[in-house]
Amino acid sequence: MIEYRSTVEGITPEQLAGFFEGWPMPPTPETHRRILAASDRVELAVDAASGVVVGFVTAISDGILSAYIPLLEVRRDYRRRGIGRELMRRILARLGDLYMVDLICDAERRPFYRALGMRDAAGMMIRNWDRQSGT
Ligand SMILES: CC(C)(COP(=O)(O)OP(=O)(O)OC[C@H]1O[C@@H](n2cnc3c(N)ncnc32)[C@H](O)[C@@H]1OP(=O)(O)O)[C@@H](O)C(=O)NCCC(=O)NCCS
């Protein structure tokens, strides 16, 4: 059974293995935990049987007008079971009183976000690749 949590309290780095798939220089599980703790909102999917975190989404926000969703990932062995959709549904519900909720995604991911009520937009970005594992 998958349990959903809105806090990283009680979650250890050991429960956070297996994320940032395909990243050349991924954050460590310790850094991942720091990211979750420093985010304004977080939603976690936990496999109740093992205690392993199998999915997460984060949001950073000014709490007044706008929020940005930088990270969403479901562990590969848990994909296509509705976990990503449920994580997004939960975090969007918690951000629903704000004017702007934005994220950047690859073109092939757009149908996933459209199905959650989001609209297409153009974006701009900077990537400091040597900082990919975190500062
Ligand atoms: C994107 C991601 C979070 C989706 O998580 P998930 O738990 O597999 O998604 P869900 O099972 O909730 O999928 C919901 C719907 O989205 C669509 N969808 C999800 N993954 C898809 C894929 N790889 N290809 C096509 N459609 C997909 C499907 O319509 C799916 O519904 P269905 O399973 O009934 O057909 C997951 O694939 C992932 O972690 N990818 C790597 C990291 C990433 O790309 N993050 C997003 C950054 S913008």
What does this structure look like?
The termini are far apart. A hairpin with a 5-residue loop joins strand 2 (41-47) and strand 3 (53-61). The model has no long low-confidence stretch (mean pLDDT 97). The chain is α+β, with helices and mostly antiparallel strands. The chain has a single domain, classed as Gcn5-related N-acetyltransferase (GNAT) (Aminopeptidase, 3-Layer(aba) Sandwich), CATH 3.40.630.30. The chain has helices spanning 29-38, 83-95, 110-114, and strands at 2-5, 41-47, 53-61, 66-68, 72-74, 100-102. It is globular. The protein contains 3 helices and 6 strands; from the N terminus they run E-H-E-E-E-E-H-E-H. The site of coenzyme A (COA) has 13 residues, from strand 5 and helix 2.
List keywords for this structure.
135 residues; alpha+beta; Aminopeptidase; six-stranded mixed sheet; 6 strands; binds coenzyme A
Question: What is the quaternary state of this protein?
Answer: single chain
How many distinct beta strands? 6
Give the class-level CATH name: Alpha Beta
In helices, the fraction of residues equals 10-25%
Which ligands does the model contain, each kind named once? coenzyme A
What's the number of domains? 1
Low-confidence stretches: none
> Structural class, from secondary structure content?
alpha+beta
Mean of residue pLDDT? 97
Largest sheet entry: 6 strands, mixed
Binned strand content = 15-25%
The radius of gyration is 15 Å
Please, what is the CATH homologous superfamily? Gcn5-related N-acetyltransferase (GNAT)
CATH topology: Aminopeptidase
- Overall 3D form: globular
- The N- to C-terminal Cα distance equals 35 Å
